UniProtKB/TrEMBL annotation:
Pathway(s): Lipid metabolism; fatty acid biosynthesis
Residues bound to NAD(+): 14, 20-21, 41, 65-66, 93, 163, 192-196
Organism: Plantimonas leprariae
Name this protein carries in UniProt: Enoyl-[acyl-carrier-protein] reductase [NADH]
Keywords from the named record: Fatty acid biosynthesis, Fatty acid metabolism, Lipid biosynthesis, Lipid metabolism, NAD, Oxidoreductase
Gene expressing this chain: fabI
Length: 264
């Protein structure tokens, strides 16, 4: 893959630490020769993201809270000034009140429903609006989703509803932007132990369940998600758009656990 992304520049949003899916993607893109910019959410994460950016020789594009449009505008203004154009965009951002990532979906509050939708769904459209203007020679946008969008997963609740909306927005954005040679796709990643995932109830059990029941009999790593992201962000996938690509050890293919599968 060396040189696959040389001459390409992209913004990666959602690195919180070295366990973030966005970090797996950043490493893969950087190894393939891309120039990268990272954002961080607030000063506490800046301390973690700064050394990671330095490790890849990446640009620190500043603080961005996607709930605050002014901070999104500031990041894109800085990128326009520095690069003048953009080739790819990664959105690896999600949020919901962890008190509602346990128990029943039916008990979701209006306030958390609205916030979850704004941060986990609308924000992708918000950054796509800004990125469109900078993708003068076409481009590729990628977001991260989860199987809880398609089927009910315990505790995923409002986040599942949000991911379903996010996947639908990938298709609408793909149509809107296709005429400008801008592609829009999602990776549906299997469960990975990250900061965001630690807010989901019984997460260790979910990991074990996937390990026992996925066709590959294991979970996935951020580096494997990174490698698949490299495909979707590079010209290797030039004719792929509006797609939700599962990187989940094949878990989504399973309808029922085999009779002789080990109990957990
Ligand atoms: P993570 O905690 O490392 O990353 C989540 C990121 O979202 C953080 O960098 C955080 O700063 C950012 N974020 C949250 N609210 C924000 C806001 N208001 N403004 C800007 N940034 C904000 O966890 P992760 O698991 O790497 O999550 C990345 C994406 O992958 C999320 O969309 C998540 O839903 C998705 N995903 C995760 C898994 C998993 O099992 N970990 C599986 C499938 C999909």
């Amino acid at each position: 893959t060396q040189g696959l992304m040389s001459g390409k520049r992209g913004l990666i949003m959602g690195v919180a630490n070295n366990r973030s899916i966005a970090w797996g993607i950043a490493k893969a893109l950087s190894q393939a020769g891309a120039e990268i910019a990272l954002t961080y959410q607030g000063d506490a994460l800046k301390k973690r993201v700064e050394p990671l950016a330095a490790e890849l020789g990446a640009t620190l594009a500043g603080h961005c809270d996607v709930g605050d449009a002014a901070t999104i505008d500031a990041v894109f203004a800085a990128l326009e000034e520095k690069w003048g154009k953009l080739d790819f965009l990664v959105h690896a951002i999600g949020f919901s009140d962890k008190d509602e990532l346990t128990g029943r979906y039916v008990d979701t509050s209006e306030a958390n429903f609205t916030k979850t939708m704004l941060i986990s769904v609308y924000s992708f459209t918000a950054v796509a609006q800004r990125a469109e203007k900078l993708m003068r020679d076409g481009g590729s946008m990628l977001t991260l989703t989860y199987y809880g969008a398609e089927k009910v997963m315990p505790h995923y609740n409002v986040m599942g509803v949000a991911k379903a909306a996010l996947e639908a927005s990938v298709r609408y954005l793909a149509v809107d932007l296709g005429g400008k040679a801008i592609r829009v796709n999602a990776i549906s990643a299997g469960p990975i132990k990250t900061l965001a995932a630690s807010g989901i109830g019984d997460f260790r059990y979910i990991l074990k369940w996937n390990e026992y029941n996925a066709p590959l009999k294991r979970t996935v790593t951020i580096d494997e998600v990174g490698a698949s992201a490299l495909y979707l962000l590079s010209d290797m996938s030039a004719a792929v758009t509006g797609e939700v690509h599962h990187v989940d050890s094949g878990y989504h293919t399973i309808g029922m656990k085999a009779v002789d599968a080990p109990d957990i």
